[in-house]
Design goal:
By secondary structure, the protein is α/β, with parallel strands linked by helices. It has 4 domains: 2-74, no CATH class; 97-150; 168-291 and 456-467, Aspartate/ornithine carbamoyltransferase (Rossmann fold, 3-Layer(aba) Sandwich), CATH 3.40.50.1370; 302-448, Aspartate/ornithine carbamoyltransferase (Rossmann fold), CATH 3.40.50. Helix content is 38%, strand content 16%. The protein contains 18 helices and 14 strands. It has helices spanning 63-66, 70-74, 97-110, 118-122, 125-131, 141-150, 173-192, 214-226, 247-255, 268-277, 292-306, 322-334, 350-363, 373-377, 396-405, 413-416, 438-441, 448-467, and strands at 2-7, 10-16, 20-26, 31-38, 46-53, 204-209, 230-234, 260-264, 282-286, 313-317, 337-341, 367-370, 382-385, 424-427. Strand 2 and strand 3 form a beta hairpin. Helix 5 (125-131) packs antiparallel against helix 6 (141-150), helix 9 crosses helix 10 and helix 12 (322-334) packs parallel to helix 13 (350-363). The longest helix is centred in the middle third of the chain and has 20 residues, at 173-192.
Length: 479
């Protein structure tokens, strides 16, 4: 059975047989690569990987012509012809189609593009002229804009290949929007239209959780699996970072096994040490200082609900922890204001506060600090809180002292009376009764369940953009 799937940069043929799927694509070097995978989405095992060199100028070729050994391997009996994309662009009168096709492919190859892109580029004369103009360095933002224009795709794209994702402070507003757009694109294509989109086949990720988390582990493992990759969970019993082996040595060892490392660690310095020594991208799944993945899920949830983040006012009622630190990095760049209520002794980190105030001044937003929860929630569109006692092994005296300090900080409808008329509530979970009452947590104003689901789509977007170039096919939301 034959079918065609439209990929970002051309047509990829999906060959289905009784027990395997064969994917082929024409590379820029003029060859076809056939990869045979199991059809089971939970076990995308690579059976065979064959590369066949093509003669330039040849048209349709059948598997029989190419003498492919995989035919008997997969049990595929019919030799149905598969077509190499042909150029259908306009050409000068009297100029042979074969000469035109070769000239287009030569120019496309010179620019470092895949030959699969030639038909789309040559289909329109104005796009072809624009394509022939002096180009930016491959992989640059200008190069991606030109590539997107030539293919009729959205002109906004930026490559994040190979970068570390430690804090949102390291990413521009455009790049954060690109991550959120990618998350929305994946959610629409995979959940909405049930598209089989598996760009991470053959990719492997290690998941290091010093601090256990249901949401982090499941969102990462299910998300990477949906995209065709594999994830490997390493518990504290499996890998003793800094104990049996130094972080430096562990980073170099793991880099030889996987394509990406996602780390949820206590000390932010340990995450930075991993990034400094690893040769593969490092994703900060949580540290004592930042929790950027959670903020991306919150932003996607608010974007879905309000339709736009710019101009919103978010009220934080809680201590100065890693979540509000990441909010402070994201708010100025995405155009919404922050009002933070924390009791004395539980304020945000001074260094993070200083950086956030500079960003707010640069982007024209406001970050307001207070010790009065009611003052923070006044006219706020979003009320957010988090766990206050995060370490169950703390002495009982410290727990009682913390509960005493946060008296009056419980999010309730009484506190919501001073908020905006259509205010909503967010909590990353798990929650305690002293943080938010049941009336709010289970009300229609609560977006916590959508927030939890969006953890999957945002971590998928981050992993995908760090490992592969992805151009969204859905319209860009209004950020």
């Amino acid at each position: 059975m034959w079918g065609y799937w439209r990929h970002e940069f051309g047509t990829q043929c999906l060959f289905w047989t009784s027990d395997a799927k064969i994917k082929d694509f024409v590379t820029s070097s003029g060859s076809i690569r056939l990869q045979v995978y199991s059809k089971d989405p939970h076990d995308p095992h690579l059976f065979q990987d064959i590369v066949i060199n093509l003669e330039r100028g040849r048209g349709a070729q059948s598997p029989a012509e190419l003498d492919l050994e995989y035919l008997t391997f997969t049990g595929m009996e019919d030799h149905t012809t598969f077509l190499r994309p042909s150029v259908q662009g306009k050409r000068s009168r009297g100029r042979p189609r074969e000469t035109w096709r070769r000239s287009v492919e030569r120019e496309v190859k010179r620019r470092g593009f895949s030959l699969n892109e030639a038909p789309s580029i040559a289909a329109d004369r104005s796009r072809w002229r624009d394509f022939q103009k002096p180009h930016a360095p491959p992989g640059s933002e200008q190069d991606w804009k030109l590539r997107g224009y030539a293919l009729g795709k959205p002109s906004e794209h930026v490559s994040m290949l190979g970068r570390n994702f430690l804090t949102l402070r390291d990413f521009s507003p455009f790049e954060i929007q690109q991550i959120l757009w990618t998350a929305a694109d994946l959610k629409t294509r995979i959940k909405g239209t049930r598209e089989l989109y598996r760009p991470l086949v053959g990719k492997r990720a290690a998941l290091i959780l010093q601090k256990r988390s249901t949401r982090t582990r499941l969102s990462t493992e299910t998300g990477i699996n949906l995209l065709g990759g594999k994830s490997y969970f390493l518990s504290p019993d499996d890998i003793h970072l800094g104990v049996n082996e130094t972080i430096k040595d562990s980073a170099r060892v793991l880099s030889g096994f996987v394509d990406l490392i996602l780390a949820r660690m206590y000390k932010h310095e340990d995450v930075e040490s991993l990034a400094a020594e690893s040769s593969v991208p490092i994703v900060n799944a949580l540290s004592e200082l930042y929790h950027p993945l959670q903020i991306l899920a919150d932003m996607q949830t608010l974007q879905d609900h309000f339709g736009n983040l710019r101009g919103l006012t978010v009220a934080w009622v809680g201590d100065g922890n890693n979540i509000i630190h990441s909010y402070m990095m994201a708010a100025p760049k995405l155009g919404f204001n922050l009002k933070i209520a924390s009791p004395k002794g539980y304020e945000t980190c001074p260094n993070v506060t200083k950086d956030a105030e500079k960003l707010a001044k640069q982007y024209g937003t406001q970050i307001f600090h207070t010790t009065d929860p009611r003052e923070a929630c006044e006219d706020a569109d979003v009320l957010v809180t988090d766990r206050r006692i995060k370490n169950s092994t703390r002495p009982e005296e410290e727990k009682l002292e913390c509960l005493k300090a946060f008296q009056g900080y419980q999010v309730s409808h009484r506190l919501g009376k001073v908020a905006a008329k259509d205010w909503v509530f967010l909590h990353c979970g798990p929650r305690k009764q002293d943080e938010v009452d049941d009336a709010v947590f289970y009300s229609e104003r609560s977006l916590v369940w959508r927030e939890a689901e969006n953890r999957k789509w945002t971590v998928m977007a981050v992993v995908l953009l760090l490992l592969e170039d992805h151009i969204c096919t859905t319209p860009k939301p209004d950020y």
